[in-house]
Amino acid sequence: MKAVAILLSVSALAESKSIVSFDGSKANLHWATVDDPVMGGRSKSTVSVADGQAKWAGEVKVVPFLHAPGFCTLRANADVPDITGSKGLKLRVKSPSSSGISKFSVQLETKEGKTASGRQISYSADFDISADGEFADYEVQWSDFKGTWRGQSVHGPPLKDQLSEINQLGLSTYASHKAATFELDLHSIDSIDAEVSDTADEQEAPDSAATSLALSVDTSTVDIVNFDGSKSGPSWKLVNDPVMGGLSHSDWSNEANGTALWKGEVKIVPKLKAPGFCNAETTNGWFGHFNDASSCTHLSLRLRSTIPYSGFKVSFAANTWNPQFKCFKADFNVSASGAWTTVSIPFDEFSNNWSSYTGEPIKKCSADKSVCPTKKNLRSIQQVGLWTEGAKGQFHLEVSKIFASGCTANPAPAPTPMRLLDGFWN
After folding, report:
1. What's the pTM?
2. Maximal CA-CA distance, the chain
3. Residue 412 lies in a domain
């Protein structure tokens, strides 16, 4: 890890709503770069200040041990002005066209942002910038922020009372999930003035928990992946018959109507005289985890198909270093009517002991509980996948959402094994 510390400035005048600037006329705010702190990460960045702005630049590289992009972060530890009553943050930044990353996260912590068990919550929101070399203002609303603890979502932005006690700020390349060089020039961070809405008041927990974020989920469903643009979703990659001269192929595209289109053809592998497979899977891997589904009974997909195909499967991985082949997998069927439908699969129909030739379970959950997903697994979903396997033929599948259903209130999560971002802010 390489850390470079500099002194920037922060406004002490709450009425100005200026949080970060670089004109040297205000109280000092200490910043440092944090680059791939564990697992042999090689990403690196530097920060410098000149002409009233900060220049943060570096390169995100693939972590060899994980075979996935690392991250660079710029962060500060300091009290900032009371911005109670604001509706979000406004960042004035620019990036040159040569920058390979255009999606960043703004991150913060508050003194009272803790789970019911006292664990520190980190809040983050993603924003995309235009790499045209010109300064522009980018706004992130408080409703865009997600609170997480140890990589698990705790569902909600900072509460109203927490906005008077922000004590950490940061910017990260983590949202891009991309290995590339980057440059980001930061001119200022200000609050966005607004009256506190009724919605914000309703988020407060009762009694002594009024300043803590309640750990709860929707009482019927929990979002895992969607494609409607309202949330920052993971990237997807394709794996099509990688060995034995496989001929299967597929294409993945994000459509303008807020869905993902996956289409292709599963063909016979000549050397095996059997159907190959196509696989589309998320790429956040061990770096990130999806929402806690431990209170839910089913994995559901909102989708439609226009070509009859009998080999669809869905998978999710948790608590494994081999998410592709040690995932939990189950079959599903969908008609070729072209009509939108919701398919729900009970979690007790998934197995992580399945044939790599057909995708069918070697041991079923109903016969051997050791192959079933546990509550711990459902709290720590790290990858989601779609498969066409065990049957040859063309397929054309459009997906708008993958979510957990049959959910009830979710208690505070039990301790889980250390992950890459554990304690990152602490």
Report:
1. 0.48
2. 74
3. no
